[in-house]
Amino acid sequence: MRMRELKNATDLKGKRVLVRIDANVPIKSGRAQDSPNGRIARSAVGLNWLLQRGARVIVMTHLGSPNGKHIPAYSVKPIAKRLSSLLGIRVKLARTVVGDDVVKAVKVLQDGEILLLENVRFDAREKENSPSFAQSLARLGDLYVNDAFAVSHRAHASIDAITSELPSYAGPLLSNEVSVLSKLEKSSKRPFVLVLGGLKMTTKIPIIERYISQLDFVLVGGALANAFFVAQGKTVGSSAFEQESIAPARRLLERFADKIILPEDVVIASSLRRDAKCKVGTPDLIVGKQRVVDIGPKTIKRFVEVLAHAKTIVWNGPLGYCEVATFCTGTREVARAIGARTGRALTIVGGGDTLPVIESLGLADKFTLLSTGGGALLQFLSGEPLPGVEALKT
Length: 394
Description:
Rossmann fold
């Protein structure tokens, strides 16, 4: 897939460059919770590249879902602070998203300076993909850069409509993600292993069905595995699973049982407390309100053995209840196994819930791609077009 890329834009000195990033991270006590490999930190690399070339950078992002209202709790002020610390210069903050005061703030920007607009979702027209909102944003820049893969599945004004108003390019984060993910479509080396965890089946079925002819194995863990257990008629106690996932799980087992590897043993806990009583065994051992919280040691061994021979690996979703470290053993071991294959295999990992685990192990740079996207990644892999990407195609 070929897109107009930022690296092909020339003579950026003095140009007003409007950049869409994804800085939608948790805010606690007025501080953005962004790790060294988090969304803001990774966006800062592209922003710094522009600043070093003398561009006047205007940054856009959303934070939460304020539903078109100016809600102080959703202000991007903490994002400005985080960017300032990363870039080593003051990131100015506009009081609103568009309007005369923003136009004035942009007008006084000097070469190599940066301004962050307020939360684009403070304006209801953002989610409506409004041409009028896109035009108001476009007044602020000479060219537009989308460096927000994680929200490029949204047909929103700062992602889609704006590309009709300005010369538009893909930033380095977006370009890299699309480039690596596109390799799966062109040619996937075998053995090809898909590792799926988390809760939702509905977003993952299209991926399984799209690649099933190329896939050698699908390793299933997390709450996703519970739906398969129920589909097999097994009891899972109080374990989390999507009720609507049972029928699709049953169909997948009927069609592709030879490729789907479910946990042969699991960790069963009396509760989700870290001091809960635990035992290891098959789901048949679940009594009352006990629940599955992780894959067991036999399953970990089996998964690691399969991954050790893979040449293409795609992983999305934790394999246990990783909010409690005790229940994250399977996820950690699979992360290590996939990281060890990088170089000999194409390794693509969806960030999100697995990112803190990966960072705690020092593995954030050990994959071909550690994606910034959740929904965008799943949509791209399922073969559905992403509006933000389609708009930048050459």
